[in-house]
Write a structure and sequence with these properties.
- The complex is a heterodimer of chains A (249) and B (167).
- With 249 residues, chain A is mainly alpha-helical.
- Chain A has helices at 11-43, 57-84, 87-118, 127-148, 152-166, 169-179, 202-234, 239-248; strands spanning 189-192, 195-198.
- In chain A, α2 (57-84) runs parallel beside α7 (202-234), α3 packs antiparallel against α7 and α4 (127-148) packs antiparallel against α5 (152-166).
- Chain B folds into 2 domains: 1-33; 37-120, Nucleic acid-binding proteins (OB fold (Dihydrolipoamide Acetyltransferase, E2P), Beta Barrel).
- Chain B has 3 helices and 7 strands, in the order αβαββββββα.
- The chains are: A mainly alpha (249), B alpha+beta (167).
């Protein structure tokens, strides 16, 4: 069965599709968030070294993961837009940026709140923290550049280029704790040679993964909703939008 | 070659170029990106001699000595150790055998005078009971190697002590 993906790269067909599927993602995200938060506070055990304070990991790590994943997806859409010149691509990149910036800020903020009681400082300029801060600036730069240029095509090209160049920062963030001496600890979940190893107790790991999945679903729901308003805004002069609005009346 | 293939190539080549540049820059800045020097590097005089830098490693077990407000301890990377003196509040996670990053200057007497001490914890998370069980298992394993007289739960240690082998 071959799906004609290009059919959905047209805003006119993607708009109703996004509207149909986004509530499902929102609902699933809400359920998983409730389960995940309950597990974070009441099911996951106290840590032997950090006591109750370590529980901030259940929001800190999913937020940090999302900040990186969203950037990769955003850059992927930007590249797709440059290669195939599909209108939807740049709209998707634009829709992803604010959520990515929010998760980056959340990762930095929860990291500071965690750092103060455990390390003894809100902030240090080590490789992990600094590269994550650069990621926040990349998101902000992308959004600023995109909105500074009036012509959507030129805006997409300029901001897309910035998004693509910024991709090199992602492996730097991820591997910073291995490549250099940092105050930030290494990854609790390691991928080596196809196997996955975790240095957390299973129940803590499951709680973390459920919270991460909730963040994924939240992101999908929010981005689909946001892209719908971007589509309406940019296509407001087109026939299909006018027809749709007429039908609604 | 179609136009879109050309664009694809251009993006891939562009990204590879940027990645190469960043790699070279990071290679050149390697020592500046590292957040701290290890005790071996300090002993080998690779750290700055007359200005502030950060020293990181483990707090050597049994090295912490409190002298009024001053805290004396040694930072080790299990190869070399550097003595440190610090006056101030230590973070809660500051413990013997745990990670630490101290910022300060090397004194003329070879003692690192720290102005700030931060705790560096690792990426292991587990409940206290599990940590305790692991510690006990570790201890009884060590005991079984040294003194056969020590009572060892059979479930923890599988080593069969040979009588008279130790002491």
């Amino acid at each position: 069965m071959a799906i004609n993906w290009f059919k959905y790269s047209s805003p006119a067909t993607f708009y109703p599709l996004a509207g149909r599927i986004s509530p499902w993602f929102a609902g699933a995200a809400a359920i998983l968030l409730v389960v995940g938060l309950y597990m974070s506070f009441f099911v996951a055990p106290t840590d032997y070294k950090q006591g109750e304070g370590y529980r901030i990991i259940f929001i800190h790590v999913p937020a940090a993961w999302m900040s990186m994943v969203i950037y990769l997806v955003m850059a992927g859409w930007a590249a797709a837009g440059m290669i195939w010149r599909t209108r939807l691509s740049s709209m998707m990149a634009t829709a992803l940026a604010p959520t990515g910036a929010m998760f980056t800020f959340l990762a930095l903020w929860t990291g500071a709140l965690w750092g103060k009681p455990m390390w003894g400082t809100w902030w240090v300029w080590d490789a992990r923290l600094t590269s994550e801060l650069i990621l926040l600036f990349l998101y902000i730069g992308f959004m600023a550049l995109e909105s500074a240029i009036d012509d959507p095509r030129r805006a997409a090209r300029a901001s897309g280029l910035l998004a693509l160049v910024g991709v090199v920062n992602i492996p730097i963030i991820y591997y910073s704790v291995q490549w250099w001496n940092t105050l930030h600890q290494g990854s609790s979940i390691k991928f080596d040679g196809g196997g996955v190893q975790s240095s957390m107790t299973d129940i803590m790991l499951w709680t973390l993964l459920i919270m991460a999945l909730a963040c994924w679903l939240y992101t999908i729901a929010v981005v689909l909703t946001r892209v719908r308003s971007i589509i309406l805004e940019r296509e407001s002069g087109s026939v299909w939008v006018k027809e749709m609005l007429q039908e609604k009346k | 070659m179609k136009t879109r293939h050309k664009r694809m190539m251009l993006i891939v080549l562009g990204l590879a170029g940027v990645a190469l540049i960043v790699m070279l820059v990071m290679q050149a800045l390697q020592s500046n990106i590292n957040h701290f020097f290890s005790s071996s590097e300090v002993v080998a005089k690779k750290s700055p001699q007359d200005r502030t830098f950060r020293l990181g490693g483990l707090v050597e077990k049994g090295s912490v000595r409190r002298d009024d407000l001053l805290v004396h301890f040694r930072i080790t990377d299990n190869i070399e150790t550097v003595p440190v003196v610090y006056s101030g509040i230590l973070p809660d996670l500051f413990r013997e055998g745990e990670g630490v990053v101290a910022q300060g200057k090397m004194g003329a007497d070879g003692v690192f005078a720290a102005e700030e001490v931060l705790a560096k914890h690792d990426e292991t998370y587990m409940p206290p009971e599990v940590a305790k069980a692991l510690e006990q298992a570790e201890q009884s394993k060590q005991n079984s190697n040294t003194s056969p007289a020590a009572a060892i739960p059979a479930a923890v240690s599988t080593d069969v002590p040979t009588p008279g082998a130790s002491e």
